[in-house]
Amino acid sequence: MMEALKPYAEYKESGVSWLGNVPEHWIKGPGFAAFREKQVKNTGMREKTVLSLSYGKIIVKPLEKLHGLVPESFETYQIVEPGDIIIRSTDLQNDWKSLRVGLVRDQGIITSAYICFKTTDMLIPEYGYLLLHALDLMKIFYGLGSGLRQNLSFIDFKRMLIFVPPIPEQSAIIQYLGTQDRRINHLIHTKRRLIELLNEQKQAIIHQAVTRGLDPNVKLKPSGIEWLGDVPEHWDSNAVKRNYMIQLGKMLQNQSNEPNDVEVPYLKAQHIQWFSVRTTNAPKMWANPREIEQFGIRRGDLLVCEGGEGGRCCLVGDVEPGHIIQNALHRVRPMNHSRNEYLQYVMSAVSTTGWFEAINNKATIAHFTKEKFGSLRIPFPPRPEQAVIVEYLDNSFAEIDIIIDRAHREIALLREYRIRLISDVVTGKLDVRSVELPALGETETLEDKDIDEDTEAEDLTDTEEDANDD
Asked: Residues 25-80: pLDDT tens digits?
């Protein structure tokens, strides 16, 4: 149970429009009274100690996730120590990079994309992190910064008015929010585990249906396909290109090259997830009418990732005319009485076998080329049986997908609650001083897997696929 918190007994005007009233006893001061910018030049640390901020969590950046961009020298990096606070200073306009504040727990080095703060005696480091984290969650940073890309610097924080509770109260706030954060993470972890189990159940059903069919008594024969094994004896096993037309997308064109070029929306790998495609707010590139026809998409097309997670795919639903695909995607259309709906389920089954990873080149960025895709051998039931399998799978997943969607919504609500709670407590809207916290060991001790496993993956996926796309 989350405790019902009450406001403080007495408040005063803060004089800050976005902050409103603050507790009467909180101390007012400029940012430089609580924070100092810290710059310690690197003197020899190398890539194994590079720290990266990913959605509020600081991690050591593995070499393979630097995408081969290891610098010749790390002398321009700066050293950070436990208790330091780092802020991603670039690209304020990119909302997906929210949660740009992190608390350092291990010594390491950071790039010039970050600024490092050290707290004064006025703040406990953990509270200093919570204060800046709350400002980030409330989008206050978005009004700061300079230049075209709105880059932050310490100057943006020096004169900012802040209100700080006494040290004992800071400690109470740290303990309370830490306890609630662990509770919320436990709930999120439980719901994510439910989603994982349901998706595993779906994958088992898909694999059985597209490799063995729906008749448990059907006679089988060797398929001759390494990842597949035996298949019903009346099925064929052919390369994808025998039954589907594959079109790789257009290379990114950032300017007009011909008089009849026009700007059109395009999709790339990060728009495609398994069984889900995003077409809203698509970026634009230049293309001529012939290319719009060649690379265009329509309802029923199957879009398959060439880069990033090669093989990941989804059917196109309703889409506005004029959308095309970039060369990080393949567009698939059926021939010879085949069905894209069936191929989508087969590709999902293949993804669980590790076969895509085996045939893609992972030295830098994976590439599921047209040649690899077209040569992929898969089972082909007769078209009427493909339709029956697709209908069976669609119906089987209807109720499961409702439960999964509900769990995702509940996770979103828990995240929203966490944001609101942090903002309200750190800005003095709610008083936690009288809350009795459970003794150590009586609350959950799970790490924040919600962010580490979920949003970090999104961050890295975007980075890899954008590098490949552009």
From this structure: 999 999 999 999 988 887 777 767 888 777 678 887 665 555 555 666 777 888 89
Question: What single DSSP character describes residue 436?
Answer: P
pLDDT band (50, 70, 90) for residue 443 = very low
Superfamily of domain 27-164: DNA methylase specificity domains (3.90.220.20)
Give the other-Cβ count within 10 Å of 94's Cβ.
12
Same fold, 1-11+169-470 and 27-164: yes
**What are the CA-CA distances from residue 183 to residues 420, 441, 445 (Å)?**
15, 12, 9
Alpha-carbon distances of 24 from 13, 32, 135, 162, 421, rounded to whole Å: 9, 22, 20, 14, 20
Q: Could you tell me which CATH class the domain 1-11+169-470 is placed in?
A: alpha beta
- For residues 41-73, one letter each, b for 16 or more C-beta atoms within 10 angstroms of the residue's C-beta and e for the rest, the string is ebeeeeeebbbbbbbbbbbebeeeeeeeeeeee
CA distances from 397 to 313, 379, 405 (A): 18, 22, 12
CA atoms of 348 and 304, how far apart (whole Å): 11
Non-local (6+) Cβ contacts of 205 within 8 A are 393, 396, 397
Closest-CA residue to 248 (of 361, 363, 371): 371
Are 337 and 388 contacting, i.e. CB atoms less than 8 angstroms apart?
Answer: no
Q: Tell me the average pLDDT across 249-269.
A: 93
Cross-strand bridge partners of residue 247: 331
* DSSP β-bridge partners for residue 304: 313, 330
What are the extents of the domains in the chain?
A: 1-11+169-470, 27-164
H or E segment to which residue 359 belongs: helix 355-359
Q: What is the mean pLDDT of the chain?
A: 85
Instruction: Give the amino acid at 163.
Output: F
**pLDDT in the model for residue 323:** 95
